[in-house]
TrEMBL record, chain A:
This is Stage V sporulation protein AC. The keyword Methyltransferase does not apply. The chain crosses the membrane at residues 63-83, 132-150. Keywords: Membrane, Transmembrane, Transmembrane helix. InterPro entries: Spore_V_AC, SpoVA. Pfam families: SpoVAC_SpoVAEB (PF03862). The keyword Chloroplast does not apply. The gene is spoVAC. It comes from the Bacteria.
Length: 154, 341
């Protein structure tokens, strides 16, 4: 496919003009919103972890149930149609925590249920989270291998 | 014959009338500034339908039926149905035809398909072909999101240049004949656009991709009909939005033309861009179809406007093409509509 099409001077001039007229992203506002939304979600997670620790778990033991609770919260808010609003305001502050991961799994599942459980939900479940999982696993493999080669601990 | 060739792009018609028109929209469009002009406003995006695709099909069918009812015409009297939508394999338009059982010419030029349908419909009527043509176009916010962007409930931040695909359908019944009923609307001429690609690659900035196509078509149209832009009360582009109209105006200015007071845009008018959080404005085939069939036709019939040029604009990319690094080709088709008296 002819991907690199040469732009004529007229086209370049136009693209420059469009660049000037295009409204900019409100980066500062977005960053502040991401800080507070992300911070709030993490605080809720911290609260959940403390809850489990108060009921006799070590901090390490409390990690797994905390993760489960946060995934559940993300899924519930997605199902209620609220989580997209959280991310709309909070941006990466809403996408990056594990609640955002939950949103990325539940949203395509909800969306594709009209196509059935196999060809819809089953096939589309990972359309958003898939790349993150693929390259996350690949990165984990590389890091694990390096760790083994350097420290000798598997 | 009633069709005159003005150039390879433009044709003039003598005897094509818009007998009736109908616009059916979703709730968000109904809350917009043009809400009172639409025939029907759905209470919810899905309106009890089980899928967004099914909802779009119902929306289009409702607009088509309503246009016929308003004209007092039966489906059996319709010679040809023309139109399109955004969905893969044109399923809204095609599935609607499964219901109405009339001859169908399904068309695709993305969001420019409404003027393509009206222009072609006028041309074949004026050329002595069918005498009654129903031209329609539709889009649905949710079905378009699913196909072109992300799942509905997935959270993400839209960029300031992103457009909001409208949930809207519009239909016009074109018939052969002299204008009889006052105030009948006539289709004066049509200009079919070229595909213009000036190297825009961002699918979230269709305004920058489409503005050169709109400029090219409007310029060609004015040259072919031998008029100045002031011949029209208003030139409405399809879905260039806030940024696209600015770009179009700037391009005209660079050629020494002052078009600013004549330019407006269906996507920009459909929503309150400040209050309704639609960023650059509305888009989708249903956007220009509903704004024309709802708002502009009423303005023409109520003598607010005498003559309008509608220039629907389409970004001709697919979810595959932009991922492969291709730039976004665009097209614009224009139809000139006027009130007889």
């Amino acid at each position: 496919m002819a991907k690199v099409r040469k732009l004529s001077p007229e086209m370049k001039k136009y693209q420059n003009m469009a660049g000037r007229l295009r409204p900019g992203k409100p980066i500062v506002k977005n960053a502040v919103a991401a800080f507070f939304v992300g911070g709030l979600i993490c605080s809720v997670g911290q609260g959940a972890q403390w809850f489990f620790m108060r009921h006799g778990m070590t901090p390490k033991e409390a990690t797994s149930p905390t993760t489960v609770v946060m995934i559940g919260v993300g899924a519930l808010l997605t199902g209620l149609g609220w989580y997209d609003r959280v991310v709309k305001v909070g941006g990466m502050g809403g996408s990056l925590p594990i609640t955002g991961f939950s949103n990325a799994m539940v949203a395509p599942a909800m969306d594709s249920r009209t196509e059935g459980l196999v060809l819809g939900v089953g096939a589309k479940l990972f359309t958003v989270a898939g790349p993150v999982l693929t390259y996350g696993l690949a990165a984990a493999f590389v890091v694990g291998l390096l760790r083994y080669l350097i420290t000798g601990v598997a | 014959m009633g069709v005159g060739r003005l150039s390879a792009s433009s044709y003039r018609f003598d005897n094509v009338v818009i007998r009736s028109q109908a616009a059916v929209v979703g709730p968000k469009e109904g809350e917009g500034p043009l809400g009172k002009y639409f025939d029907r406003i759905w209470p919810s995006e899905l309106n009890h339908h089980t899928s967004s695709e099914e909802a779009e099909l119902a929306l289009l069918t409702e607009a088509q039926n309503l246009a016929l009812v308003k004209a007092g015409v039966e489906w059996s009297q319709v010679d040809l149905v023309m139109g399109g939508d955004l969905l893969d394999q044109l399923i809204a338009t095609d599935f609607a035809a499964r219901g109405h059982q009339r001859p169908l010419a399904g068309l695709f030029s993305a969001c420019a398909v409404f003027t393509e349908s009206v222009g072609l419909g006028a041309m074949i009527i004026a050329g002595g072909g069918p005498t009654v043509v129903l031209a329609a176009a539709s889009s649905h916010h949710m079905s378009a999101e699913r196909q072109f962007r992300y799942p509905i409930e997935l959270g993400y931040q839209r960029t300031p240049t992103a457009a909001w695909t409208s949930t809207a359908a519009g239909a016009c019944l074109l018939v052969e004949g002299r204008p009889v009923k006052e105030p009948d609307l006539i289709i004066e001429s049509a200009t079919f656009g070229r595909v213009i690609d000036w190297g825009t690659k961002n699918p979230n900035d269709m305004a920058t991709a489409m503005a050169p196509a709109a400029f090219d078509t409007i310029k060609q149209h004015l040259r072919d009909v031998g008029r100045d832009i002031s011949y029209y009360d208003q030139v409405y582009t399809g879905d260039l939005g806030v940024l696209g109209v600015k770009l179009l105006d700037a391009m005209a200015r660079q050629e020494g033309l002052d078009w600013s007071s004549y330019l407006d845009d269906c996507g920009k008018s459909l929503y309150d861009t400040q209050r309704q959080d639609v960023h650059n404005g509305g888009s989708g085939p249903g956007c220009s179809a509903s704004v024309f069939s709802g708002f502009l036709c009423r303005q023409l019939r109520s003598k607010e406007f005498r003559r309008v040029l509608l220039v629907s604009t389409g970004a001709l990319f697919s979810p595959t093409s932009y991922k492969q690094g291709e730039s976004i080709p665009a097209i614009a088709h224009a139809v000139a509509i006027s009130r007889m008296n």
